[in-house]
């Protein structure tokens, strides 16, 4: 059915899940779940929506589709079989959404059933048994929290706003580009005060210039006096400067604190097998200074690739039209929170490296985030309850549990 809808109508229309229609659809859907549980004793079809077979089969189907989700590149392409079936746009494809909706429905009715069974816990407690009621509460809380996560992700997806902001040092930005490339205004302005980067130590590799193949082995330059063997050559770092430059006409690098300064290494290379010894400066270069290589033989040189970023940080000031102003330090995986917006660090000018004056930020607004956040805490609490309730069951618990299951179903 999902494949037929995908071939006939294309992707799932996202405009149906925007406010207020998503709230109307969600409210009616929850009402239908309660009705399905209430009338499941009278209808065999309604019972098949949330029995053990339905729960297991829907869960396995979601697992399979999730694996496909991870294996297929999500580039939005419509080419090939995966593109036609919507697997390259999995989150908006009919097969995935229908399978996820089936699982959510089964889990939702089962959660309503377990919530209704909580009224029997008082009787179990009077019988002197506390483990089973605690297990029942933990199981119900886990199912409800998982249901809320899927529910909020599905019905709240249309209200989520994701936009990209390119900020330059000292220039306030009040416009953003959506993920589709359309420009629009922000309810606040972002001023990039400073961009800084922490880099890994530079590396020395061997490069085969004939095939343009770099060696997998390398020497990490953490300071002067570092030595190691790369390929058939022994390398020794005689001098090292983390910020240096070489002026035109000079043969040696000198330390300088200037935009575009690069790490430079004076390396001594020796190949005892052939009795060769080479020495000279090696640097990765930048937009201001040219890269330097040390030739070893006719086709092999020592080169230094640009150091990789260990982490980078943007110091920003966010201000809205109401006069509210806040300063933030935004790092990768450490977003700033301004009202209902979250600002993430996603990129920079890679050609400039640590001298970048540009920071790429991603601004996200999700009105349903508080519901997801609460569900995650409930799920953690249910795990704690399961741990506390672990252990053997009392003999009196077994018939009570079976009796409760007959009453619920």
From TrEMBL:
Swiss-Prot/TrEMBL GO biological process terms: cytochrome complex assembly
Residue span, ResB-like domain: 308-352
Listed Pfam families: ResB (PF05140)
Keywords carried by this UniProt record: Cytochrome c-type biogenesis, Membrane, Transmembrane, Transmembrane helix
Principal place of residence: membrane
Annotated TM spans: 20-40, 52-72, 132-155, 368-389
InterPro entries: Cyt_c_bgen_Ccs1/CcsB/ResB (IPR023494), ResB-like_domain (IPR007816)
Localisation: Membrane
GO CC term (a single one): membrane
Domain of life: Bacteria
Membrane association type: Multi-pass membrane protein
PANTHER family: CYTOCHROME C BIOGENESIS PROTEIN CCS1, CHLOROPLASTIC, RESB-LIKE DOMAIN-CONTAINING PROTEIN
Name of the protein in its database record: Cytochrome c biogenesis protein ResB
Organism: Candidatus Cryptobacteroides excrementipullorum
